[in-house]
Amino acid sequence: MANIQQLLEKMLSHDQDIRFMALNDLKSFLERDGGKIDERMHRHVVKSIAKLLEDKNGEVQNMCVKCLPPLVAKINPELVIEIIKPLSAGLLGNDDRQRDIASIGLKSVISQLSVETHSTRNICNQLTDTLIHALQSDPDDSVVLEMLDVLNEILRRFGKQLTPYHEAVQNTITSKLLLHSRMAVRKRAIGALGCLTSMTNDVLFKALMHLLVSNLSAIGSGSTGGVHVDNHARTVVQLAGALTREAGDRLTPFIGDIVPTIVAILASADDDDLRDSCVQALESFAFRCQKDMSAHVDTLVQVAVQYLQYDPNYNYDDDDDDD
Helix 81-92 crosses helix 42-52 at what angle (to 10 degrees)? Predict the structure, then answer.
């Protein structure tokens, strides 16, 4: 306990190098076999770490984040929320460096949480609630990206424990983020929906699938309009592929509507990225829903043969001009 007390005193030093070395020594201690902290010191260590997460020196902050995984694994779980609070505040703030630190720190903490504990449920509930409300407030793009990274990590590890939040997460993503102007945001939104699909109830799943089918149909009929139609089409087709990879046989009732529509979009597409998304989505359906795709085998073979012969670097319009 004396050694820990000395490290805590050094963490208060005005010298950034001393603060850095104190954190480095704490990290080494925590990572050693048998490197346990006396329970009477848990709260003091957490308080010091929470303070240094907001240190003005970047190297001190980075070392502080590196301390989080071994620390979370060895302190009283009830105290982890005291680390989550400053990280959540940093994630939602306007300081880019602080936001990066907060995002990395939150993902580090989430990776170390025990799956089946009351404390973990409380932490995930509070953090998910915070993220949902923040995403609904239309924050800056850079903030959205960091929040989606954290949300994806929570859903990946603890999504089944967050049933009360499934509807809010799904509605927030589909209404606010799925058709975002930035591709990086759309990609993360698709990832979150894909992860969520593997654990939502039938009502939410059917609602998402009906949304997918209606959007695919609109694209296939050419009724979407607007300057972002290509981005919209690519996003919706990529979502279809992602849901297939995660949900598999749950898509059975919808395959008859989805697959022919994607084939139609592929046939009329004049964008190579959209064609690529369509082919990848069809591949996912063929791999994950083999039995249900038997009726579409001939179509898939025709598509495969056609695009094996297609060279995206060749200008086919030149041939038409020559004729």
Answer: 10
The whole-angstrom separation of Cα 222 and Cα 213 is 14
Backbone angles phi, psi at 73, to 5 degrees: -70, -15
Condensed to tens digits (0 to 9), the pLDDT of residues 209-260 reads 999 999 999 887 764 444 345 788 899 999 999 999 998 888 889 999 999 9
In three-state secondary structure terms, 68 is: helix
Neighbour-count burial of 161, counting CB atoms closer than 10 A to its CB (0-12 exposed, 13-18 middle, 19+ buried): middle
1 touches 45 (CB < 8 A): no
Q: Name the one residue in this structure whose structure tokens are 């609602």.
A: 207
Residue type at 224?
T
Structure tokens at 38: 């006396």
Lowest mean pLDDT among 52-61, 146-155, 299-308: 299-308
* Residue 62: both structure tokens together: 């980075």
To 10 degrees, what angle do helices 255-268 and 202-221 make?
30
Angstrom distance (rounded) from CA 291 to CA 308:
24
